[in-house]
Structure formats: C-alpha cells, structure tokens
Design goal:
mainly alpha; single chain; TIGR03643 family protein; CHP03643
Length: 83
C-alpha cells in the first residue's frame, strides 16, 4: 500500500504507542501485525527497528485479545496534532 508521508508518520506513531493495539492499525490503515512489522522494518533505521521489536514483542497491550479489561482507550495530549 502507498501512504502519504503523514499517514506513514501516523502508522509509525501508533506502532510505538503502548496502548494502541495492532488491530487498531489494521482497522485504520489495513495493515495486519505482520504488515506493520514489515512496514516498520522498511521505514526505520535497523537499530530503531530492533528497539521497537524488543519493545512490542510480547507486550499484551498491543493485542486486543490479550490486554486486560482495565486497559482502556486513552489519548495523549499531543496525539492529535494540528496540521
């Protein structure tokens, strides 16, 4: 899929966010977990990709089915930036 620069930036931002599950990225951008991993590998420096993979691997909040019901939807004050 081809994305605009702002869409690419948003996918990367969502992938880094702890509380944003892969299912949300798939719903908004059509990228499943494996596609997000491939996307991140292509768009990031190797060292940044390795940091990201170690961060999200096994993280329960990145998967809707694995997360605790106490993990709700939260927004960071800078999440919706003025464009």
């Amino acid at each position: 899929m081809l994305f605009s620069k702002s869409e690419e930036s948003r996918v990367i931002e969502m992938a880094w966010e702890d509380r944003t599950p892969f299912e949300a990225i798939e719903h908004l951008f059509g990228l499943n977990e494996q596609a997000v991993i491939t996307f991140m590998r292509q768009k990031m420096k190797s060292s940044s990709f390795k940091l990201w993979r170690s961060r999200v691997s096994g993280r329960r909040t990145k998967h809707t089915k694995l997360r605790s019901p106490e993990v709700g939807r939260a927004y960071c004050p800078t999440q919706y930036k003025n464009r």
